[in-house]
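Slide 14.
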Amino acid sequence: MGVVLAGGRSQRMGGREKALADLAGRPMLAHILARFAPQVSRLAINANGDPARFAAFGLPVIADQIPDFPGPLAGVLAGLRWASGCAATHMATVSSDAPFIPLDLVSRLARASAEAGGAVARSAGRVHPVVALWPVGIADRLEQALATGERRVHRWVETEGMTTVDFTPFEIDGRTVDPFLNVNTPEELAEAETLMQLFERQRERA
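Slide 15: predicted structure.
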């Protein structure tokens, strides 16, 4: 099971929704889904507001169960409840602003999770706590933590003792790219546009 976390307010994008921002002629979310969907059995989008804006993707849209945009952990909880209803044991999450996620992301997280119960991605020494594989059984604990004011994903990952899995940067025409490059601002979107064009050219030459 997989969930793309798109429940934020995209404040640094000037209110423009990151998931739907144009990147190389397609919504950024389309690039993410193309890489993520083959890795999971079923897929959903966590988003708040009118779900109709995601209708073109043909996927379930699940909203946070906790009001007032409490952050990514609320999206994780919503995803866990959805995955539980589908009788899944684990759920993978990625953010809606990372268009270069690895094609072996879930398989590598799953191998690590087999011993630790949950796993989270890391690159260049930085942990990416919303890029993770979560045991569905933690949902009640997470709901209780949110009810008491927990909002920090990093702290929750540490509390759960989730193992980290290292992913290495890759090269695009001599440029080193973090596989979890986040697009949070218009400037970063422009950079991602350049990288995506280089990526497409490199793939055509391969």
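Speaker note: Helices lie at 28-36, 72-85, 105-116, 139-147, 153-160, 186-205.
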